[in-house]
Amino acid sequence: MNKADLITKIAADAGITKVQAEKALSSITNSVTTTLKKGESVSLIGFGTFTVGQRAARSGRNPNTGAVIKIKATKVPKFRPGKSLREAVASAKTKK
Known about the structure:
There is one protein chain. By secondary structure, this protein is of the alpha+beta class. It has helices spanning 3-14, 18-37, 83-91, and strands spanning 42-44, 48-55, 58-61, 68-71, 74-81. It has one domain (3-91): IHF-like DNA-binding proteins (HU Protein, Chain A, Irregular), CATH 4.10.520. It contains three helices and five strands. Strands 1-2-5 form a three-stranded antiparallel beta sheet. Helix 1 (3-14) crosses helix 2. It is elongated and about 55 Å long.
């Protein structure tokens, strides 16, 4: 499912227009992004929690030359699924 498919699904489920659904989805993603930029977390009970994690500085290799390079420490977004989401995915039937 891509963003356009999600907007169509939200509009159908909520009985609103696609324009309204797109504004709602944009508001959610912007709010999550803004909150994570502040270093805070976003918890959606049953769905999951978005947090900011730290990735330590480390050494790596340039795949073209094989030279050792230093990779700076950075902040990365993380997502931890909630219990309801984990259970829903675990109980879903797989397609063969």
